[in-house]
Specification:
single chain, about 120 residues, alpha/beta, three-stranded parallel β-sheet, 4 helices, 3 strands
Amino acid sequence: MLLGLRDIIVVDDVVSSGKTASVLRKINEPWIPGARWHITIWVAQRSVRLRGFTTKQASLWVGSNETRAPINSLSTLLQLPDVAKSFSQRNLGNQADDFLLLLEELKESCKSSILVC
């Protein structure tokens, strides 16, 4: 247990649903009793639900409370092919296959370099 910590700050690149940040808090909260949770994000959906976070800061809020903007983190698109395929088909029309090919090329580049993807 980490006693005496008052504030935990989570930093994320993109928050589309809030699931990753919420799971992170849920898993760790029992080990850091009484701490306030904060999140700072580069790009976030306006409609995201981040229950349990005292403050929520984003450099850019996109979409509205009713409509979600087509955003996703690059790590999600690289690691989850089904999400990448669905994302590209919904948002890129006839360029969906080109986008998926580009993601595959990026994955291959990461394997043969010092890049961390």
